[in-house]
Amino acid sequence: MEADKKTIKILCIEDEEETAKLLEEDLSERGYEVALAFNGQDGLKAILNNSPDLVLCDIGMPVMSGLEVLERLTAVSPRLMHVPFIFLTALSDRDSELKGRKLGADDYVTKPIDFDVLATIIEARLSRVARMDVWPKEVQLNPREIEVLTWSARGKTSDEIASILGLSKRTVDFHFDNARTKLNVSTRTQAVVKAMAGRLIDA
């Protein structure tokens, strides 16, 4: 278990240096490889350049807030949407939590940090990602399903996809429905996100 953990990279984005160092010390002792960023802008660059396995991010930071980091990450790099993103916050602000979850945050940990609770949350999130690495092998999307999901990930509507592929809108929707069934999701957006997380498509 410890040998496996050493290959797992965790990025901590935290502007309070003391908290950042405590996170680095605790997580390193638990066998993780830890990198630090001290503001949101540097944190976003680190995510895009280094592709960590999990991100811990403070919400209230100078330069760029944690919510802005997640929002920009989702916009510029959908391929990283499968990376667990956990917010660290001193806020008990329901509106901030709701906004974060809508943006795709996986969890919230309130300061002062209980490191045993944090470690349990990290383990659970990483285990979920590990399970997600298995299911794509069991899903077989045909070329048309891959095409319509790929174009949808690029922001195209059914009408636009139909025009691009030379198909009717009804046929495009048929392929979307088949893809949703195979991926066991309810909506087109969920199908796109899950297909990208499983690396079945690359937008």
Brief description of this entry?
The protein is an alpha/beta fold. The chain has helices spanning 2-5, 17-29, 40-50, 66-76, 94-103, 115-132, 143-153, 158-165, 169-183, 188-197, and strands at 9-13, 33-37, 54-58, 85-89, 107-110. The protein is elongated and about 60 Å long.
Task: Explain the overall architecture.
The chain has 203 residues and is an alpha/beta fold. The chain has 2 domains: 2-133, 3-Layer(aba) Sandwich (Rossmann fold), CATH 3.40.50; 136-197, Arc Repressor Mutant, subunit A, CATH 1.10.10. It contains 10 helices and 5 strands, in the order αβαβαβαβαβααααα. It has a 5-stranded parallel beta sheet, with helices on both faces. α3 packs parallel to α4 (66-76) and α4 (66-76) packs parallel to α5 (94-103). This is DNA-binding NarL/FixJ family response regulator. InterPro entries: CheY-like_superfamily, Sig_transdc_resp-reg_C-effctor, Sig_transdc_resp-reg_receiver, Tscrpt_reg_LuxR_C, WalR-like, WH-like_DNA-bd_sf.
